[in-house]
Amino acid sequence: MTQDQARTVMALGILAVLSLIPIAVALIRSRVFRDWDLTATVVFLTGVLANAPTVAYVIRAGRPQLLDPRGETVIGFPGWVNQIGSVANGLLLATCVVFVVHRLLVTRPRINVAPLLALTLVALFALSDGLHGQQFLAPRQFVLLAVLLAAVVARPGRAAFLGASAAVLLFTVLGGIEALVEPASVLRECRPDNPCGLLGVHYAGVFTNENIFSLLLALGVPLVWLGLRGRVRVLLACYVAFLAVATGSKLATVAALAALALLVLLRPRLMSEGGRRVSPGRILLTVPVLGVASFIGLAAPFHHPGADRLGDRATIWEMARTELGGSPFLGFGGKAWSGKYQVGEIPAAVSPSLHNQWIDILYASGLVGLVLFVLLLAHLLLKGGTAAFPAAACVLLPVLLASVLERPWSFDISNSLTVTLVAALLIPAAVRPATAAAAPGSGSSPDALPVRTPCHSPAATAPDRSAPR
């Protein structure tokens, strides 16, 4: 680590400690307005437990890099990390089951359509696995199914965003503390084929890879903005976007800054907050932005500048394209691509996915899965009409941008980014203020007036009167 990198890491650690002040303010305000409920808890645990093995590994072991005889990075963790993963998956599975039973027996929840579409896509991945002789349902597929089933009966809106933003902010603080305690463990090496970013480092925090951390941050920017209350949410959203830049990932930098710019432009509020209306012109400006991002992501694997610009991505896209004709409608299953690493057909770095959301879904679940994914995106954007469109657009823009060169959402297994998928699936639909009522017993207090009147401007602290879910 150079002296400049050491200073950068120290600054990131200090910023993380200082961020505890606005985080505390935001969480206290959430408690005053009774925003945290069982939905927030389940979403928060989805983020924390899915990443617990990685965080434990980095904090305890640092960042050792094991290479195979070919010089490629070895995928996998030591046995004790896998044991933590098994326990964490079991806890998350049990939590989701208890949550679903509680919601069905006690609260009579409304059924959310978006998680049902996602569940159908996951089932299609598993079906295609079975048809091609792969394991029908792996343990982490069961966990993903349980999490999505919990989302079907969860309460959409602020609670889900709050739980996801709390998980994102927790990892930013843990990364900062690790930067102060073990500075070398939060950085990854800069190489000619992977040069450092704007700050001269690859900041990975408590994750094994800066790309994973950067995607979590980029997708978390709008969740922080929407999940928290008051002006402090703007400060924390900017902080999360800054950390995405600090990771050195160019893709995450673009996605995070674009999300932040759209948030500033649209200034979305949840349906029941009232206040300003977004002008039709701004909405009309946003639609082509989302359309262009989707088109580029879908077209990239089929029309790209080649390996000279995209490296291994271009190679694996070409490999996948030549195989698509073998199963065009149902794909090859979620485990088909990663299985190529086991037989030495692809390197470890590209084995988790095809590094593009669209061709990843097309390869694993065929045209049927691609249609389901498009329907899911359309439903999330349109289900609330023009009133809910700004919030949905801000949540989905970084996802669509990241989808060009990465696979932010997995429909095969639960992973580090599943928490962002669950939060996005719980984007609230339009609610008529005249019919909005306090949420029935969901293991939390209703979204009504705060327990005590906070000393803030009425506009910044307008209570959330979400419809019961």
UniProtKB/TrEMBL annotation:
Residues 238-374 form the O-antigen ligase-related domain. Its main location: membrane. InterPro entries: O-antigen_ligase-rel_domated, WaaL-like. The keyword RNA-binding does not apply. It is a multi-pass membrane protein. GO terms for cellular component: membrane. It comes from the Bacteria. Keywords: Membrane, Transmembrane, Transmembrane helix. Residues 438-450 have a biased composition (Low complexity). It is found in: Membrane. The chain crosses the membrane at residues 6-28, 40-60, 80-101, 113-131, 137-154, 161-181, 201-227, 234-263, 283-303, 361-381, 387-405, 417-439. Residues 438-469 are annotated as: Disordered. PANTHER family: EXOQ-LIKE PROTEIN, TEICHURONIC ACID BIOSYNTHESIS PROTEIN TUAE. This is O-antigen ligase-related domain-containing protein.
